[in-house]
Amino acid sequence: MATAIYLEHYLDSIENLPCELQRNFTLMRDLDNRTEEQKAEIDKLAEEYILNVKNLVSEQRVEHLQKIQNAYSKCKEFSDDKVQLAMQTYEMVDKHIRRLDADLARFENELKEKLEVSGYESTEGRGLKRESKGLREKRGSRGRGRKGSDEDSPKKKKMKSPDLSDALLPMQPSDVLDMPVDPNEPTYCLCHQVSYGEMIGCDNPDCPIEWFHFACVDLTTKPKGKWFCPRCTQDRKKK
Amino acid sequence: MGRGRGRGRGRGRGSAGASRPPSPYQLQLSPSRETLTYAQAQKIVEVDLEGRIHRINISDLLPIITDDEMTAQDIVECNSNKENSEEKCQSKTRVCRKVVHNNKNKKSGKNQQRSHQQAGNTNSSQHQSSLPEPKFRLLKSVSLSDAPPLQSAYYRYIEQTGEEQDNVAEYDLDEEDLAWLEMVNQKRVRDGVASVPPDTFELLIDRLERESILESRSQALAQCSVDEDAFCCVCLDDECLNSNVILFCDICNLAVHQECYGVPYVPEGQWLCRCCLQSPSRPVDCVLCPNRGGAFKQTSDGRWAHVVCAIWIPEVCFANTVFLEPVEGIKNIPPARWKLTCYLCKQKGRGASIQCHKANCYRAFHVTCAQKAGLFMKIDPVRETGVNGTTFSVKKTAFCEHHSPVGARRDGSGDESVEGRLVGGRGNRGQRSYTQSPPSPQNKKGTKGQKKKGTKAGGTRRSNVPLLLVPQIPSHRLNKICTGVNVQRKNQFMQRLHNYWLLKRQSRNGMPLIRRLHSHMQAHKATEQKEPDEKLSAAREELRYWQKLRQDLERARLLIELIRKRERLKREQMKIQHAALELKLTPALVLLRATLDQLQEKDTSKIFSQPVNLSEVPDYLEFVSQPMDLATMRTKLEAHSYATISDLEKDFELMITNCLKYNSKDTMFHKTALQMKDIGGAILRQAQRQFQSNGLDSSTGMHLPEETNKPGFYKCTWDDVDSLLEPENRLHLTTEEQLKVLLDKLDMVTSMKTSGGRTKRIRLLRREINSLRQKMSQQHMFNGNDKKEEVDEEKEEELPVKDRGRRKRKDRTEDKDISNPDDTPPVLELTCPVSSPLPGDAPLEPPDLSIVSGGRRSPGRSYKRQRSSRSGSKSQGEDEAEVAETRSSQQEAVHEATPLGTPPSQAMVGVGRRTSVLFKKAKNGVRLAKNKVQQNGDESEGKMNGLDSSPACPELLSLTNVTLPPTPSPTPPSPPHHLRSRGHSLDKEAEKSPILNKEGLTNGKHCSIEDEEEDDDDDEEEEEEEEDDDEEEDYSPPPKRSRGKPALAKVPEIENGEISGGQSSLSSGNDSELTPLDLVWAKSRGYPSYPAMIVDPDMPQEGLLHNGIPIPVPPVEVLKLGEGRETEGEERLFLVLFFDAKRTWQWLPRNKLVPLGADDTLDKLRLMEGKKPSVRKSVHTAYNRAIKHLNNVRGNIDFTPSNFI
To answer: Which H helix or E strand runs over B328?
Structure first.
C-alpha cells in the first residue's frame, strides 16, 4: 500500500531532527562544562577569600567578592541558556510529534476508507456484523466470568468469527498510548504521578511542578484566563 | 563474462585478429560535454578515436606498456597507440593506451570490458616478462556431478493464496456434469448457439460454490447469534468446564457438552454435529420420540435417535461409551414401551416412552417431551465410567408432573439449588430444544433462540432445509459471477446452470461440491480473510512503522523533558550554591543586608530611603552635619563598611536623630521617625542577637571558627523578667542599659509561647520601657538644650547625676501616670509606640486618641506634655519654676505658644515637607533669641502658663489624680463622688508635695535660670535624690498597682471626655489660639470631625466680608443658645459654622476644635475618620468647600483639594 505522500514529507522533515538534537545536546554539554569551570574557579576564589579575609581591607573584599559574584552571574547565564536550549529542544520534538500525530490520524482514516471500499460488499456487511458480534461476545464473556475460566474454550467455536474486525484492531490509534511505561518518566502534579488525562500548566513560569492533573486541582474544564497552582497561589498571596 | 575471458586467453596474444587489447580502464561512454561541469571538464581529456569521442579522466592511472609488449599487439592497436601518444603531454612517463572499441567487439559489451580490465591489471604487474602461456590439459573422465541435495530448509511449500486459488477453477467435471453439459450443448447447438466448453462450466460452478460458501457463512453468522445462556441440549445445563465445554455445531448451532455428545477432544476448525455432518440437507427423526431438534446420534441400523432418549430409555445404550455412538439396543425395547402413550404429547405409538419413577404411577412420557415439559429428571452425578449416563439403571430418576419433588417442579430457582444433573424444571429450555416432528416434520434446526414450539403444520416443506444449506445466491452476485465468462445467451445458460447446481447440491444433501471449501471452511475463511489481510498487513506494517517512529519520538520527548527538568534544577542549585557561598563568606553582610531590608520595609512612606535633596532644602546641612539615609547605608553596607550590627545601628540612629532634629515635632516626618526608631530598634536588637548567636566574627564578617555558646537568651525564666521588672534591680545600670535589657526581655518574652504570664509580663515590660524612654528623651532634651543654649557648664559632671535624679522622680511619677488607669485610659498604651517585637504590628498611623486630642504631638511625648501641663497647673499658684521646668522640656510647645512665635494661623497653613521644614526653620531661627529671652523671662513664662492653664482649670482635680498613691480607692460610681475622692487624694498629695514641689522648684530653677542658680541647687538635688529613692521604695512596684485596679480603668465616659478634652485643649492651646474665621475640624458628638469655620458671635449683625468673601451671620437663637451654654459650663465655647450643605451652626468647646489646613496628614486623617463611606464622602465634600473658602479668602486658586482624595 502506497504511503501517503505527506508521510514521506514528514520523513524528510524529521530527517535532521537527530542532528539538531545532537547539536543542542552538545551545546548544553558545552555550557555545562563551562559552568563547571566557573564553579571550580568560584571554589578557588572562595578558598582564597577565606584565607585572606583578615588581611583584606574592605575594598579588596568587595573586589574579591565581586569576582565571585561575576563568576556566579556567568554561571547563571549559562544555566539560563541551558534551560532555554532544553525548552527549545522540547518544543522542536513536540512540534514533530504533533505533526506526526496529525498525519497518522489522517493516514489511519484513509486506510480505513480504503479498506471499506476495497473489501467485498459482503465482507463489508459481515465485517459490521462481526464487529457487533465481537462486542457482544466480549460482553458475554465478561458476563460469564462467574463460570470460572470458561471464557475461551467453551466459546471457542464462536471465537473464530471476528476476523476482519480483529485484523483492524491492532491498527487503532490507541496503540500509541500503549507504550511501555518508562520508569524514568517525569512526574508532575501534587500527586507526583506521571502525566495522564488532561493536564493544566501553572502560569507561573518558575513553578516547580508546572503541570497538574485536572482532578488533583479540582478542575473539570479548562479555566479561563490565567491559572496558578495552589502553591504558587499561596506564594503570590504572600507577596 | 566467462565467455569474454575465455576467449581472450584461449586465443592468446599472438593471434591478432579478434583478440582485443586489454584495457586498463573502462571506457566510459561518458556524458555529453554539455552535461559536464566546468570542474569536471578540466579533469577530462577527450580523444577522438574512429569518430567516437572518448574521455579519460586525468587522475586515472594509466599503465605503462613497453615496446615489447607493443610488438605483441596487433597493428590496429599500434595505430591506436600512436594516436594516443598525442596525449603524452599529460605525463611523459605514462603511455596512454587507448582501447579501440571496434565494432566487432561491441556486442560483447560490458563483459568484455571487464575482462579487459583484468587482463590489463595482470599486464601492468608483469611488466617486461613475457606473457604467461596458458596451460591446460584434458581431463579424460569428467562427469558433471549432480548438485548435492540441499537442506530441506531450502525447500518451502508455498500454499496458494486464496486469491490464486480463486483464479483457478477448482471444480472438476464429473460424469453427471458432462452429461448435463452435453445435453445443454446439444440444445444450444440446436438453437444455433455456441456450445459451452467444459472449462467455462467448471469455472462457473466453481464461482457458484464460492459464492454459496460466502453466502452460507454470512448466513451462519447471522444465525449463530451468540447464545449467551446456551445450554447443552442433552443435559439442559449451561455449566461449562474447561474439560467439558459446550460445543456448537457450525451449521445448526446445536449446543452440546463435550461429554454429553461424546466429543472427547475439541477438534480444530469447524465442528459439526452428526446429523449436519451426515445428513446435512434432511432433517432426521428420532426413532424413540416424536420430537425433532436436539442432539442426534445414529443408531446401529442407520436411523437416528436423540442422545437423551438413548440415555433415558433403559434398554438402549451406546456401543462406544466414549464417543456415545452408535445407539444400540433399540430392538431390545419391549413392545410395551413402544405402546405407551405419552401423557404430554398424547401421541401413541410414536417412539418409546419412559414412566414416572414414582411407584404406582404409570404415567408415561417421551424423554424429550419430559424435557420440553420440564419434568423432574435427575441423573446421578456419580460417574464410575467417566462418562455421564453410560449406566442406565439406578442413576436416573424422572417424575411426572404430579410427583416431582416439591420446590423443584417448574421452578427455576428451585432447580438451581438442587445439586447434580437436574433436568427437571427446565421446561423452557426443553421447549426451546425440541419441536414435534412427524407427522409434521418442520425445520426446527438451529434458531432455537427465537423459535417457539413448532405448530403442527401439515405437509412437508422441504424448501427451507436446502435453502439453509445451499444458500440462495442473490441475482446480482450471479451477474457478477458471469461477467467474466464469455457465453452466448448467457442469462439463460446461467439460469440453467444455477438450477442444475442447486439440484446437484441438494442431491448431495447440500454438501459443497468443492471439497476444499467444505472441509476447510475454517481454513478457507482464514485464507479469504487473508485476502484483505495482504493489503491489511502491508498497511499494518506501515502503520506499525509509524507508530514505532511515534514512540521513538515520544521517548525523545520524554528524555528532553527530563533534561529540561534537570537543567532547571541545576539552575536552582546554582542559585542556592551562590546563596550558600555568600552565607559562608559574608554571613555578617547577609545579616546586615537582611536587617537593612527589614528596616527599609518599615519605611513605608519612603522618607528615609533616599538622601535628603539639598536643592529642595538648601539649609539642611545647617542643622544636620551628617546626613544619613537608607540608600547611603546600603552603599556603605555593600562596601563592607559595617562590621557589626552596632555600626549599622549607629547610622540608623543618626538618620533618625537627623530627622528628629530637622523636622518639627508636629510634622509627619517627626512622627514617622519616632515610629521608625522604635520599630527599627526592635529589628536591630533582633539582628544583634542573631549576630551573637550565629557567632559572627566582626573583623572578617565570617563565622567564628568554633561554635559560640548560645547566649542564654531564650533560657530566661519568668523570675529573670520579674526581677528585672523591679526597678531597684537595675539600678546599677544606666538608663540606656536598662532600656536595652528591658527591650531584650520584652523581645524574649514575646517570642515565648502564649500564656497568661506572658501577656502580663509583656505589658509590664512595655510600661517600664515606655517610662524609660520618656526619661531618656527628656534627658536628651536637656542635653540638647544644654548644647543649644551653649551654656558653659562649669559643673558639667554633676549634670548626669541631677538628670538622673530628675529622671527617677519623673520615672516614678510617670509610673503612676501609666499605672493609674483613672487617668490614662487603655488607649494610652496605643498612643504610646511601644517597641513592638513584631514590628509589623506597630501601628503606623497614630491611634484615634491622639488624633482626637489634637495637634501633632509625638505620642511618646504626650505624657510629658500632659504631665508638664498638669504640674504646671498644679503649681500654678505655688511655684512658677516648676512650670518653667516642664516648659523647658517642652520647648517646642512653648515656642509655639509664645506670643513671640509666628501667628499660629499662618504657621499652620503650610503643607508638605518643604514648607513644614521652612516653618520649623523659622522657629528655630527664633529659638536662639527666644531662649535668651527665656532665661530671665519668668514673667513671660508665668504669663504663658497662666494662659495655658486657664482653660484647663477644671482639669486641676483630675490631674492631681496623676500622683494618686496606690491607695485602693474605689471606682468612682459617679462624677461627684469621684471628685470627692480626688479631693481626698489631693490632700494626700499635698502631704507629700513639699518634697515634690521643692524638687520641682529646684529643677525648674535649674532649667530656666541655669546660669545663675546652678550651684545653689546642687546640694538639694542630691538630697532629693536620696529621698526620691526612698519614695520609690515607698511606692509599691507600679505593675501591681495597675493590676490591682482594673476597675479604675472604667472611667465614666463623660469624665474621660473631659479629661481628654482638657488635655487637647491644653495642647491645642499650646499649638495655637483659635481666632474667629479660622477653619477648624469640629467634632460634635455623634459625628466625625467636620470642616467648620469659627465665627465670632459678636460679629456685626449686618454681616461682614472676609477678604471679600461674605461670612454668614449667625441666627439669633443660635447666639442665645450659645450664651446659655456658655453660662452653664465654665468652658469657653466657640461658635462654629459647619461646611455642610445646610451650613449648620454649633457651639463647641475648644477641645473639640482642631485647626484645618494646617497639616495635610492631619487633614487626611480627619477625612478618613468617618466609618461609613457615605459619611466620609460628605466630609470630603465639606472639606472641599472649606478649602475653596480658604482659597477664596486667600486668593489662592492653585490649591487643588483633589490631591487629598
So the answer is: strand B325-328
Q: Which residue does chain A place closest to B544, by CA atoms?
A: A171
- By CA distance, what is B534's nearest residue in A? A1
CB B630 within 8 A of CB B599: yes
How many Å lie between the alpha carbon of B648 and the closest alpha carbon of chain A?
Answer: 16
C-alpha dist (Å) from residue B282 to B273, B389, B436, B1184: 13, 28, 16, 115
Selected residue with higher pLDDT from B767 and B886: B767
Determine contact: A161 vs chain B, CB below 8 A: yes
Q: B171 and B513 in contact (C-beta within 8 Å)?
A: yes
Q: Is beta strand B325-328 parallel, antiparallel or unpaired with respect to B317-320?
A: antiparallel
Chain A within 8 Å of B1026 (Cβ-Cβ)?
A: no
The Cα–Cα gap between B1092 and A156 comes to 103
Query: B248, A157: Cβ pair inside 8 Å?
Result: yes
Highest mean pLDDT among A164-173, B504-513, B842-851, B926-935: B504-513
* Residue B617 host element (H or E): none
Question: Helix B198-223 vs helix B475-483: angle between axes, to the nearest 10 degrees?
Answer: 150
C-alpha distance from B519 to closest chain A C-alpha (Å): 16
Of B242, B536, B550, the CB nearest to A100: B550
Cβ count near B33 (within 10 Å): 12
For chain B, state the CA radius of gyration.
64
Cβ partners under 8 Å of residue A203, min gap 6: A226, A227, A228, A232
Q: Determine the Cα–Cα distance for residues B251 and B446; give it in Å rounded to an integer.
A: 8
Task: Label the pairing between strands B1104-1106 and B1090-1095.
Answer: unpaired
Interface membership of B848 toward A (CB under 8 Å): no
Residue matched to cell numbers 477644671: B954
CA–CA separation, B751 vs B758, rounded Å?
9
CA distance B748 to chain A (A): 26
Quote helix, strand, coil % in chain B, to nearest 5: 55, 10, 40
Q: Does the model's pTM come out above 0.80?
A: no
Residues B1161-1182 as b/e (b if ≥16 CB within 10 A, e otherwise) read: bbbbbbbebbeeeeebebbbeb
Å between B636 CA and nearest CA of chain A: 10
**Distant-in-sequence contacts of B695-699, Cβ < 8 A, 24+ apart:** B696/B587, B696/B588, B696/B591, B697/B588, B698/B588, B698/B643, B698/B644, B699/A54, B699/B643
Looking at residue B236, its pLDDT comes to: 79
- Does A71 reach chain B within 8 Å, measured CB to CB? no
Q: Where are the alpha helices (DSSP H) in B435-586?
A: 464-469, 475-483, 490-507, 515-519, 521-585
Assess contact for B985 and B823: CB atoms under 8 A: no
Report yes or no: B870 and B962 within 8 Å, Cβ to Cβ.
Answer: yes
Residue B594 has pLDDT above 50, yes or no: yes
Q: What percent of chain B has pLDDT over 70?
A: 48
pLDDT band at B160 (very low <50, low <70, confident <90, very high): low
Q: Give chain B's mean pLDDT.
A: 63
For the beta sheet containing B1079-1082, the strands, ordered from the edge strand earlier in sequence to the opposite edge, are B1145-1149, B1133-1138, B1090-1095, B1079-1082, B1153-1155
Contacts of residue A79, Cβ cutoff 8 Å, sequence gap at least 6: A35, B567, B570, B571, B574
B242 contacts in A (CB within 8 Å)?
148-150, 153
With CB atoms and an 8 Å threshold, state whether B247 touches A157.
Answer: yes
Cα separation of B316 and B332, whole Å?
7
B480 touches chain A (CB under 8 A): no
Distance of alpha carbon B387 from alpha carbon B546, whole angstroms: 55
Residues B819 and B1038 sit within 8 Å (Cβ to Cβ): yes
Mean pLDDT in consecutive groups of 10 residues from the start of chain A, 239 residues? 70 87 91 91 87 80 86 90 90 89 84 69 38 35 33 34 38 46 75 82 83 86 86 82
